Amino acid sequence: MPELLTAALKALPHGAEFRFLDRLLTLEPGVSGSGEYTLRGDEPFLEGHFPDHPLMPGVLLVEAAAQLAGVVAQSDPTRLPLPDLKLTAIRAAKILGSARPGETITVHARVVGRMGALVQAQSTASVRGQLILQCEVVLSGSPVREPALGA
Q: Does domain 2-140 sit in CATH 3.30.470.20?
């Protein structure tokens, strides 16, 4: 299982500067997963958010949720991965708290619907068991042409 978690996380297309998952904790391919991101304190975005009182921007919490939803969706063994999968919509986002340097954010995502090249997922994030984010994200990719039967 550790190999599956490592491979799934490595499939994220984001560079290190914009990756908000350090490790996967669980993965039920194509269904759900959980991961963590530890806010180190040296991230460039913290310099301005906010000086002397840094905290993780809420929009980046949503990005972490979308990244995990993408990992879950792209790991589905019954479907071909969607090329160019990206965040398309955010629904019912509630930022209920914050994360500060030194804290670890635990993110959960569950795929709740798929239609063609669209993926819908429900996500949450918490710090020390306290819910700080809940949202629904929609991801979209380029349509994949399935090979014709008998081809």
A: no
pLDDT tens by residue, 84-99: 999 999 999 999 999 9
36 in Cβ contact with 107 (< 8 Å): yes
pTM: 0.93
Residue 49 falls in the annotated catalytic set = yes
Residue ranges covered by each domain of the chain: 2-140
Q: What would the 3-class secondary structure string for 75-92 be?
A: CCCCCCCCCCCEEEEEEE
CB–CB of 90/127 below 8 Å?
A: no
Select which of 14, 49, 53, 108 is catalytic.
49
User: Based on the number of CB atoms within 10 Å of its own CB, is 150 exposed (0-12), middle (13-18) or buried (19 or more)?
Assistant: exposed
- pLDDT, tens only, 60-71: 999 999 999 999
